[in-house]
Amino acid sequence: MDSRRRFTEEFRIEAVKQITERGFAVKDVSQRLGVSHYSLYEWVNRYGIPTEDHLAKEDQAARIKKLETELRRVTEERDILKKAAVSSTGRCNILM
């Protein structure tokens, strides 16, 4: 008789989701589900985020960070221009 436990594919995928999507540690999931660390790491490699998707997420995160930085800069410039416009109200803005 085989002493190894057999897990359904659905069980494996749900275990991987606890690690990849919910952020639980492999150690915690391993203890709760009674599965070896080795098996969980294998399942993450098999059912986890495909490399292409992972790279796309990294690219997207880098682009978001760049856009946030640019937005911060543009917002600061706008605020400076607003202050300049308020302080020059009623004054001529034409150089003579």
Task: Outline the fold blueprint.
Blueprint: H1 9-20, H2 26-33, H3 37-47, H4 51-87
Keywords:
96 residues; mainly alpha; 2 domains; 0% strand
Short summary:
The chain is mainly α and 96 residues long. It contains four helices and no strands. It is 71% helix and 0% strand.
N-to-C CA distance:
99 Å
Shape: rod-shaped
Would you list the SSEs in sequence order as H and E?
HHHH
Q: Give helix % range.
A: over 70%
Q: Number of helix segments? A: 4
Structurally, the number of domains stands at: 2
Instruction: Tell me the β content.
Output: under 5%
Poorly predicted tracts of residues: none
Report Rg: 27 Å
Sheet of most strands? none
Structural class: mainly alpha
Question: What is the count of β-strands?
Answer: 0
Overall mean confidence score, pLDDT: 85
What oligomeric state best describes the polypeptide chains here? single chain
